[in-house]
# Entry
Amino acid sequence: MALITITSDLGTRDFYLAALKGAIITNTGFVNIVDVTHTIKPFDIKEAAFTVKSMFRYYPAGTIHIIHVNSTDGKDKLLLAVVDGHYFLTFDNGFLSLAFEKMPHQTYEVNAELLENSSLLYEEAIGKVVNLLVKEFQPSDFGHLTTETINFRLMQPITSPGSIRGTIINIDNYGNAIVNITRAMFDQFIGDKRFSVLANVGTSKEISKKYNDVDEGEMVCLFNASGYLEVAINKGKAENLLGLKIDAPVLVLAD
# Structure
């Protein structure tokens, strides 16, 4: 049975998500659809990229991942990328370059005839592409390799021995701030030195393993399941209590 995930900014209040799922089922028959999230902030491909990049490896190769975010900037194109045996179906809005740090080598533009008479949701075109993949057609059977796509680059940390300047790339449902500083980067530039993590008005001098390693209401820093530095408040919202925002700097400095 085909496994399909959907990540979107469609919400659940309107008919949009139901229409998309209906078109997929009508075109393919019974399939297993996993709802990753439909509360990506409207048009926010950065949040979508972080979400998909963090979750897709938990699914088996061959999974079809639909990313229906910011379709209005999609240039009337559907893109299908193949990464590590997974399929990613989305719009030409820069999402792929953000999710994988550069445009995947195997990126196909879906042939125009599959998009004929598409609505603003592109639900029928998506349903047709999913059906072809389920029937084990190759992307080259209904698309063509392309390099003419929208590309964006995420801001990278600035590093030097004893110093890392990162930025907040996501704030989760708990108000925790995820920073684009990895454990490997921390080990390389900070290592065993004493250090301070500076996040707006918050300061921490240690990396914890669990949130409750500190007292309730205290700032805690740890590396999360995705391998990124996370700034949190035990049983509180760091976003509000520390005044943290997307793209704000976070510093790790050796003492």
